[in-house]
Amino acid sequence: YAANNKIWIELGGLFRVYTVRVWNKRDNNKSLFTGTKIYVDDTLIGTASAAYGFYDFSLPEQTVVYGSKVTLHQPKSTYMKLLEVQVWGNGPYNSEDKFN
User: What is the pTM for the complete model shown?
Assistant: First the structure.
């Protein structure tokens, strides 16, 4: 197994992201996702801290994060297996249309 496995989701534009939900595998290997870091562009929004069926990485309303891609990064030397990634937000925006 190689360390630093990554999965990128290109959003197709610049979006304000509120939540990233990841559906984990439903077998005995749920712990493989533990330690995976979730980024919106270069902003870390969460880390999978335990073996759950799904993870909600929701940002507080006062935290404003814009991005054009979501990255799941597993730094451990293990597989990264998952079922689905859902991204909630609004947009797309032009870079000069961002609100804080």
Answer: 0.89
